[in-house]
Amino acid sequence: MTFDFETLIFVIVSGAALVGAIGCVFAGRVAHSLLWLMLTFFAVAALFLMASAEMLGAIQILVYLGSVMLVVQFGVMLTRRRIQDVESLPTLNFISAAAGVGLFALVLALLREIMGHSMWDSDAVGAPTTVEFANSLFNEWTIATIVLGTLLAMAMVGASYLVRDERLINLVWDLGDDTVAASPSVGMPIRRTRPTPSETVEVSSKLGKEEEEE
Amino acid sequence: MSKSGNEYSLLLPLIPALLVVPILWMMGMESYEAAFLIVLAPFIAFPTILVTGQLFNGNDTWKKTLKEGGVIALAALLVSLSISLWIAIDYLSQAHHFQSNSVHNWLEWISFQVLQADYTMTSERTIGVGVWIDSVTLMLLFVATFLCFLICWFSLGYMNTDPINEDRNHRFYAEFVLFAMGMFGMVLADNFLWLFIFWEIMGLCSYLLIGFYFWKESAAYAAKKAFLTTRVGDVFLMVGLLMLYGIYGSLEFSVIFEDPSLHGSVDSNELFWALLMLFIGAVGKSAQFPLHVWLPDAMEGPTPVSALIHAATMVNAGLYLVARMIPFVDVGHHGVAGLEDLGLIVAYVGGITAFMAASIAFVQNDIKKVLAYSTMSQLAYIFTGLGAALWFYNHGDHHAAAFVFGASMFHLFNHAMAKGMLFMASGSVIHEVHHAHDHLHQGGNHDHHDFDPQDMRNMGGLASKMPVTSTAMMVGSMSIIGIPLIGGFWSKEGIIAETWLAALEHEPLMMGPAVLVLLTAGMTGFYMSRMWFMTFAGKPKHEVVNHVHESTPWIKEPLVILTLISAFGGFLLSAFGMVDYLSAEQDHLAMHGVLDTLKHAFIPDDSSLRIVGWTTIFLSLVIGPVIAARVHGGQLSDGEGANPLVSWLVWLSGRFGSQDVTEISESSLAESLQNRLYIDYYYELVLAKTAIPLSALAAWFDKNVIDGMVKQVEANSVFGSLQIRRATTGRARDYIMMTAVGMLSIFALAWGVSG
Amino acid sequence: MIDPSWIAALGVILFGIGLLGTFYHKNAIVVLMCIELMLNAANLNFVAAASHYGDVNGWVFTAIAIAIAAAEVAIGLAILLSMYSTQQTISLDAASKLRN
User: Fold this and answer.
1) Which of A177-186, A205-214, B744-753, C85-94 is modeled with the greatest confidence?
2) Cβ pair B384, B498 in contact under 8 A
3) Residues with Cβ < 8 Å from B524, sequence gap 6 or more?
């Protein structure tokens, strides 16, 4: 057997991917899980590079590792409760067993199907270039690109709306009442953002005064 | 309560109803083509009255102007009446035109193929919808439409002025109109199936109307009794129809009556049983022995109901059915021979019922019950006549058969008119006595319920207070009794004479009915006179009488009309030989003129018949009424006057002296008669032993097995859904799991299908 | 180039592991991460096929998938934070208000 450097690299990289995936699933703590996932993403990026999709490899690292994982990390930090134990599913035990078995069967079947698929039999053509990719993205797939942009914008708006701080006291402060303590929602321990009854009374009385004044 | 000038405006809606016939005639429609409207008009009126009555219940206009649906009913019935008159005139003036009697077969209603024993299908058979008009139809149609109309008129005054009926009248008129539809439809039907359908509709309406005051337990019981008793008859009728179908392969009159003997291939025994089953159905419907038990109890219904259904129309349904049996036995026109026993049975049933009913009527104190038993008795007369006709037709004596058949049909006419009027008059009496009682006891309610306005022992001496009613009742009673020259005489004579003829010259077994019928003539004289004298003659027996006055015009007018018809109708119809027109082509209703009848009645050729005739007249005219007068008659109180005829009669009744009958009235015979010869008692005993346990068993089955099955299904589905509900744990993880599993299975399935 | 079917096979296995992870965990963040894993596995498949055929559309799909995954993570975490602020926990077991 001729020593194929490429094959060796492939084995190492795919092994890393697998290890990362398994580590993500079976890690004890959330933060560890996150780190294992990052390993997997790196491996996947490497695989992209090996498949001559350099642009995609770069995108993978930039987007996934650079932003997605960061956001998830923030999520982990902001929800600091310790959920240590990874338990097996407490209910639906029969179903979980069935699901496990089914999953395994599925993976095996998929493997066989994909690897034996006729599509791999055709002659390999050279991989496309990045220039072709760019052309395609901006000419053929213009609408898709624009829509994607819109989608990301909407996601941004939506996400920021979902995590808004609804306390009335913020509204009052926004309306210009300086007597109220500024209550930025950053840095403080997050507590209930729904207003408590006392807050409501206090604030609404202030609101009333404001309207009287104006 | 008199009708002010305003109330005549209520009749305005009748004008369009009157115009229907002229419009149709001008449109060129033939009278028989419009026959369906006779049934259609009440059929449309029924839901109209019901729905508008429910919608406008309590509305003033509805109550005053439309009399809670009464005017609508009246209009519909007027349409039917006018069309039936049109048809009658048409028929009488051009009898040949109606040669094909099934004048119209409009549409094929049910068509089916029959699987035969050798597994081949026969050709298509149909049951259609159409009309069949011949002389029998006409007679009954006229009687039915006319009386329905008049009694509806009557009930406008009767029902609407009774406070207990307030806001309930729409139900009455709706059921009334539905019943009318049933009767008209039955008479016009051109096959036995539709006859049966309408027969059942009438049975239903009889139940509904008898149980009109359903909150009274006695009324509900009576309605149930009526329905169930007639139902027994109906079962036999159905069996008979099936047998007929088996023999003839069709139920259409046009098919069956064309050749009832099927060229001699019909087995007379089979046909005998089929016709006997039909006859039992008729027995149930017309309240003959042994299925007569429902008729007296049926008096629980309001008086118009009694007048219409149980005197004038529904009970004639049985007679109609028997009349339709004539073609089967007419050996002169393709009938089947060997069915003489049928005629004998019919005559016997008639005779027994006549005698039995008359004897029970002797001891009745309720005015309506007397009339009920009288109905039973008179219908039995007609059955006897029909039995004789059936016998004669089968024997081949066409002349005698036609005569007695015509007499029976004519007696039906007379009886319907007279009995309808008698019931209406009795209603008028009851109404006024009730009002007088209310008037008297306006303050206290103490003996409100103990006072029975229908009890004749509370009356007496009403002749001066109610002139029209008393005259009407007098004429009606005379018609029923068969006083010479008045109504019923012209027909009763024929029946009695021919029955005796059959008995003396041909069939000794006919002696039974013949003798019974003769005796009953005398008994009729007695109990009808007794009724009249107890109510109208003599001194008042209760203080209520002093406050009675005559009824509203709504009630009086039909009485007047029917009085005239009862009194003179028989004479006129015989005189003008109008009935000869009816017999132009077919001999089914051949009647002779006046003189012939008189000759036949008073001086028949046969000496033995002469004796019979005179005996009848003597019994009914003299013996019966005189005895009644002795017991119950008497002068009115001093200072009271009445109509000339009536007052003469009252004076006459006082002339025979008086007789005390307390001994007889307390005898055991009287007691058993009062208990209706214990027939009811034994029926109930048998039912309690057989039918009620069976029905308890059926009820148990229904509740536990059938309902149990349904409940089990319900319980199972509840259990199943509870189990399925356990899958909705609400936990996100479980949902993820389920989603994934579901999608994977779909994927696998799709893959399996494609790959 | 290496046999692309192997890359696809790796994708399948990663997908299976990711699926297992979504069932297994009750911490919402870990579930999100496993979903990301599954998406990546799919991307792998795309790229393998595209490179084999020389068809650039496969790469485009992959880029779109990456972008959408990013948007989804953002929203998912926003929801997560909302839930945390009301219930003080991100265990999926606690999200059972839809229980019958």
Assistant:
1) B744-753
2) no
3) B358, B374, B377, B378, B480, B481, B482, B620, B624
Q: CB-based contact (8 Å) between C38 and chain B?
A: no
Higher pLDDT, A169 or A143: A143
Structure tokens at B122: 């026969």
Give the SS3 label for residue A117: coil
Rounded distance, CA A45 to CA A38, Å? 11
Chain C positions touching A61 (Cβ under 8 A) are none
Q: Which of A92, A106, A113 sits opposite B734 (nearest CB)?
A: A92
Nearest to A106 among B729, B737, B744 (CB): B744
Q: Nearest CA to B475 among B370, B381, B563, B350? A: B563
* Residue among C7, C64, C81 whose CB faces A163 most closely: C81
Amino acid at position A154, single letter: M
Return the residue in B722, B725, B728, B733 with the most chain C beta carbons within 10 A, the one to mutate for interface testing.
Answer: B733
Q: Is A55 part of any domain?
A: yes
Q: Using one digit for the tens of pLDDT, what is the confidence trace for B283-302? A: 988 888 888 888 888 888 88
Give the model's pLDDT for residue B354: 92
Residues B345-364 have a mean pLDDT of 89
Asked if A97 has any chain C CB less than 8 Å from its own CB, the reply is no
What are the CA-CA distances from residue B76 to residues B18, B66, B174 (Å)? 10, 13, 11
Q: Would an 8 Å CB–CB cutoff place C100 in contact with chain B?
A: yes
**Å from B726 to nearest chain C CA?**
8
Task: Evaluate whether residue C15 is within a structural domain.
Answer: no
ipTM of the complex model: 0.91
Percent of all residues in chain B with a pLDDT value above 70, rounded to a whole number: 79
pLDDT at C62 over 90: yes
b/e map B397-411, b = 16+ CB within 10 Å: bbebbbbbbbbbbbb
Q: What share of chain C in percent tops pLDDT 70?
A: 98
Q: Report the percentage of chain B scoring pLDDT > 90.
A: 12
Q: Tell me the C-alpha distance between A137 and A128, whole Å.
A: 13
For residue A15, the tally of other CB atoms under 10 A from its CB is 12
**What pTM value is reported for the model?**
0.68
Other CB atoms within 10 A of residue B693 CB: 10
Most confident of B261-265, B303-307, B461-465: B303-307
Mean of the pLDDT values across residues A169-182? 68
Show which subunits contact B, needing at least 3 CB pairs below 8 angstroms: A, C
Contacts B740 to C, Cβ<8 Å: 19, 22-23
Residues of A (66-85) whose Cβ lies below 8 Å from C: 67-68, 71-72, 74-76, 78-79, 81, 83
Partners of B252 in beta bridges? B191
A29 occurs within a structural domain:
yes
- Contact indicator for B317, B186 with CB cutoff of 8 Å: yes
In a domain, A120, yes or no: no
A107/C80 CB distance under 8 A: no
Instruction: Show the domain range for C31.
Output: 27-91
Residues of B in contact with C26 (CB under 8 A): 733
**Coil, helix or strand at residue C27:** strand
* HEC per residue, A144-208: HHHHHHHHHHHHHHHHHHHCCCCCHHHHHHHCCCCCCCCCCCCCCCCCCCCCCHHHHHHHHHHHH
Q: Is residue C22 part of a domain?
A: no
pLDDT higher than threshold 70 for residue A95: no
**What's the CATH number where A72 sits?**
1.20.120.1200
Q: Where in the sequence is the domain holding A63, given as residue range(s)? A: 1-82
List subunits contacting chain A, requiring 3 or more Cβ pairs under 8 Å.
B, C
């492939």: which residue's tokens? Answer: A10
Q: Which range is least confidently modeled, B137-141, B289-293, B423-427, B609-613? A: B609-613
Whether residue A177 lies inside any domain: the answer is: no
